[in-house]
Amino acid sequence: AQSVTQLGSHVSVSEGALVLLRCNYSSSVPPYLFWYVQYPNQGLQLLLKYTSAATLVKGINGFEAEFKKSETSFHLTKPSAHMSDAAEYFCAVSAGQGAQKLVFGQGTRLTINP
Amino acid sequence: DVKVTQSSRYLVKRTGEKVFLECVQDMDHENMFWYRQDPGLGLRLIYFSYDVKMKEKGDIPEGYSVSREKKERFSLILESASTNQTSMYLCASRRDRWDSNQPQHFGDGTRLSIL
Q1: What is the predicted pLDDT for the residue at A109?
Q2: Which residues in B lie closer than 8 A to residue A41 (C-beta atoms)?
Q3: CB contact, 8 Å: B104 with chain A?
Q4: Which residues of B touch A44 (CB under 8 A)?
Q5: What span, in angstroms and rounded, lies between the C-alpha atoms of B40 and B36?
Q6: What is the pLDDT of residues B49-65, one digit of tens each?
Q7: Number of C-alpha atoms within 13 angstroms, CB side, residue A72?
Q8: Smallest Cβ distance to B40: which of A9, A42, A44?
Q9: Cβ of A100 and B45 within 8 Å?
Q10: What is the pLDDT of residues B57-113, one digit of tens each?
Q11: Which of A94, A100, A104 sits opposite B48 (nearest CB)?
Q12: pLDDT band at B48 (very low <50, low <70, confident <90, very high)
């Protein structure tokens, strides 16, 4: 069975600082991995996805994530935080090709300090 | 762009009522999903469907049922609402049944309160 652990339910950084949101997964087969963002009172939007083509994945709004199989991690980073990045971020794993379901982490709320 | 529309943003119902949450997608997607979102628990899958009249239980189906009579529409039904079903409900769709490389597309959610 697949599972996702997001380390830290709340992360706070200063505007202009590095953003690092941690995600570790468990999967018995090569996974597909996703990061989603949720702004207040909205649904989830896709930030980026890993599908085995490249280990470093670039997404929207300057975010990127690196797939590290040896560490079973898929951490999300952004070099310089902006006030508009304040939101909740979810990591999700799918159990490879043919899987119907996504398993989500519990979410990390990102706060940006001016 | 894919559009997933949930019929209500906010809904208040009473204990014991039968509650319907509606979701429509406009891109002929095969898969549709219902999740509930609670603080600290992330998103938990209630039911999903991969075709008209087909449904599969997710991780927390108890107290819920679903209906998919048309490909574009997926309804979540609370047979007899209880206070522990107060939550945010999110609908999602995905293009292909078997291509899990495809992302899910989400509606804006329905915040349901059961009094």
Answers
A1: 97
A2: 9, 108-109
A3: yes
A4: 43, 90, 92, 104, 106
A5: 12
A6: 999 999 999 999 999 99
A7: 15
A8: A9
A9: no
A10: 999 999 999 999 999 999 999 999 999 999 999 999 999 888 888 899 999 999 999
A11: A100
A12: very high
Query: What tokens appear for A66 in the block?
Result: 């690196």
Q: Do B100 and A46 touch (CB under 8 A)?
A: no
The pLDDT score that the predictor gives to residue A29 is 81
Q: For A1, which DSSP code?
A: -
Amino acid at A83: M
- In chain A, residues 15-34 whose CB comes closer than 8 Å to chain B: 32, 34
Higher pLDDT, A94 or A64: A64
Please tell me which of the candidates A46, A90, A101 has its beta carbon nearest to residue B45: A101
**Residue A34 with chain B: CB contacts under 8 Å:** 103
Res A112 pLDDT > 90: yes
Looking at this protein, which amino acid is placed at residue B9? Answer: R
Average pLDDT, chain A: 92
Q: What is each CA distance from A58 to A65, A85, A87, A109, B98, in whole angstroms?
A: 7, 16, 19, 21, 25
User: Burial, B63: exposed, middle or buried (Cβ in 10 Å; 0-12, 13-18, 19+)?
Assistant: middle
Range list of β-strands (E), B1-115: 4-6, 10-13, 19-25, 31-38, 42-49, 56-57, 64-70, 73-78, 87-94, 105-106, 110-114
